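Can you please make up a protein's amino acid sequence together with its fold in token form to help me picture the idea?
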Amino acid sequence: MYFTNNYLKQHRRNKLLKITEEEVAYVAHLARLDFTDEEHAKFTSQLNDILLYMDILNKVDTTGIKPMSHAIALSNAFRNDEEQESLSVEASLANAPDSNGASFKVPKVIE
């Protein structure tokens, strides 16, 4: 992170622009967005930082690294669909606060 922050600060000082305010205004016009001059300057700066960061990422050697679709490894959390014996009524109602024979008993809710 230190490298990227210094890299961005250095290029801001050198006023290295990857995108101009005119280009931001043109894209905003195409997107039918209306920005104030202050917003144009802010978005130009933010987009410039993003594009400078993309330059940093393009310098990273990624040979031998397989492309991925997600940042963390995902595995299937489902178990196999195998037939098992169901819970008995007694086991199902064992922790119920109140039951009525073969069913849960709950308070009546009427508004």
